[in-house]
Amino acid sequence: MIHSLLIALQASVTPVPKDIPLPLPLPHWLAVTLLIASFLAHIVFVNLMLGGSILSLWSEIKGLKDKRYDYLAKEIATTITVNKSLAVVLGVAPLLSINVLYTIYFYSANALTGLLWISIVPLVTTAFLLTYLHKYTWKALKDNKAIHISILALGVAIFLFVPFIFLTNVNLMLFPEKWSVVKGFMDALLLPNVFPRYFHFIFASLAVTGLFLFWYTSRKKYPFEEKLPGFTRYDIQRKGYALTLTATIGQFLLGPLVFFTLPSKGIGINLALVIAAGAAIALPAMWMIWKALTGEKEFIAKDFKKVVVLLGITVVFMGSGRHIYRANALEDHQRLVALRTEQFKKQKKEAIAALNKAKAEENSAALSPADKGKAIFTQNCSSCHKPQEKLVGPPVTEMASIYKNNRDGLKKWIKSPGKKRPDYPQMPGFPQIPETDLQNLTEYILTIK
Question: Is the pTM of this model over 0.70?
């Protein structure tokens, strides 16, 4: 009862549009699975793109005093353009999935965030071009490091800003009750949870990039001494692990703030269990990294695969938790939207029926009495009578001749006929035909010649 009252209250203060009355192109559970899986694949490369850009910028700045880090920055920069291309390609599937599953929510948020949402495409395009320019001008601008670093710094700044737009837009989806008061991007930016989620995302990008750096430079075929002179493989592995551990600790510290700034309407026991499970799985991975950092050099890569698997599972749990919260938060509103949609479909059906009835009446009004009588004849008389030929009964021309000047007699005969001829069967009566229809029927019969 209380829950119903809360839903009714929500409906009174929240915009509740009708949904598009079309079925999903695939089962709901499969659409959700595709959304989560495709989003996780996409976000990993977004993390690598952003984290790699930040790390490359930091390394090149540090390389102004220590040439080794300039080499490191160049190596990381070569991966950024590849990872950003994969991020874009893999971003199509989750974008389509969320459009299908949350059409009215996604497009409502898009409209309310306005120009900044539209600006994502030119912003991302600009950032991509800057990363390409940075990558392919390493030699040309080797004596103009300030310009070269500035190119990447501008790209990083854009990469850091674009997630703000995405997070604000996706966050606004969860607050239909705010749609009537949000007046653009800045209003939406100040909704709960945007900033905590943003910084949590930055830490995640750095953590994933640390693991990537460890793997990338640990490959057996990677010409380490040629690409990174002055470093040992252990040095880079240690830096990668240290970055991952530090960033993951940052996520753990920020995690409770992210969770407790979530509006309560989407928090449930299912969400709490999934988040707790993901965090618990990350703990042994963090311990393995710590043991590798403090242990013998030759064993630093011993548990790398285990670390990747455990942190990968954590990412799956966190991605699933994101969807669980969204589903919890929108459940009541979706129920209201479904009700509004059913009302719309009913009203549409009634409107179409009324329109068809009006058209039928209009068409009927345009017909002559004889035309209307022809339709009645076809329905009631045509199985036994033809206009000019004998069928079961005599032809209509004969009736017209007999009752030429006796319309009332014809009407009486149709209602209650007798038997005049032995060579014809007894005609059944039609007392059920209304007087108006009977008038039109006789008008038609008497026009037959």
Answer: yes
